[in-house]
Here is the input.
Amino acid sequence: MFFENTLADLAARGFVLSVVGLAWVMLLIRIVGLRSLSKMTNFDFVMTVALGSVLAAAVTADKWTVFGQCLSAMTGLFLVQWLVARARKDSDAFEEAIQNEPVFLMRDGQFCEDALKSTRVARSDVIAKLREANVLALSEVRAVVLETTGDVSVLHGDRLDETLVENVREA
Here is the structure.
């Protein structure tokens, strides 16, 4: 153990480990780049959640070996994320193998019932997203897309450039 178990020592340990753990994450982000925590893909989302879990384990470590293992695990996560992002960029086949496709939940003011059913998204959830996007009429909605990260995008207005939805699949 690197601190005794008094209340002051436990508080000091939590503070020191938090500062060092966060500094380590910031250093890794500076090395690997902001793309690491972008959540643009399902893999990025999993990376972010895993990183948070490992950081939580690091700041509560009671032994230096556990703390070091957590820092090493964080480095490994960033390395794997970098390698996967690179492979996705360089290989369409790899991209297709690991990436979910975005799905239309609405198109031109109409709900895509098959997509709602297959993605297990409730109509009321889509309506809530429409309200968040300040949609005033369903006829304004050009598309509602369930993105690969689980986010929902609402595209509304007078017209839609098809480039924005060229890789979105119909249910």
About this structure: The longest strand covers residues 141-146. The chain is about 55% helix and 10% strand.
